[in-house]
């Protein structure tokens, strides 16, 4: 994400805002479409929210909640696989 921020920092704020909105909402929409069609829908939703989180507070909070949930799932999976050994 640092590379995306570094790339976007070269543009003036109005241009950066428009680019983030367009790219973020396109990825989010594609992810939602892919939830009912074949494709990596959750991945696109995550990327879309991550890009929108650069400029929008609600997307930043939603992205943070998603990351916390993902960390909990990974911790549980690690615990399950440790027990099997």
Features:
85 residues, mainly alpha, 4 helices
Describe this structure in words.
There is one protein chain. This protein has one domain. The model has no long low-confidence stretch (mean pLDDT 89). The chain has helices spanning 2-8, 13-34, 41-52, 57-84. The protein is 81% helix and 0% strand. The radius of gyration is 16 Å and the shape is globular. The longest helix has 28 residues, at 57-84. The protein has 85 residues and is mainly α.
Short structural description:
The chain has about 80 residues and is mainly α. The protein has 4 helices and no strands. The chain has one domain (about 1-85).
How many distinct domains? 1
Using only C-alpha atoms, the radius of gyration works out to: 16 Å
Q: Level of helix content?
A: over 70%
Strand/helix succession: HHHH
Strand proportion, as a percent range, falls in under 5%
How far is it from the N-terminal to the C-terminal residue, by CA?
36 Å
Report the sheet with the most strands, covering strand number, pairing sense and barrel closure.
none
Net shape: globular
Number of DSSP strand runs? 0
Would you identify the regions where 5 or more consecutive residues have pLDDT less than 50?
A: none
Structural class: mainly alpha
Mean pLDDT: 89
User: Helix tally?
Assistant: 4
């Amino acid at each position: 994400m640092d590379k995306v921020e570094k790339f976007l920092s070269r543009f003036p704020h109005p241009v950066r805002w428009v680019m983030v909105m367009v790219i973020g909402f396109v990825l989010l929409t594609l992810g939602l479409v892919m939830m009912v069609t074949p494709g990596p829908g959750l991945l696109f939703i995550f990327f879309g929210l991550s890009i929108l989180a650069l400029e929008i507070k609600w997307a930043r909070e939603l992205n943070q909640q998603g990351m916390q949930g993902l960390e909990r799932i990974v911790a549980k999976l690690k615990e399950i696989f440790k027990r099997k050994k």
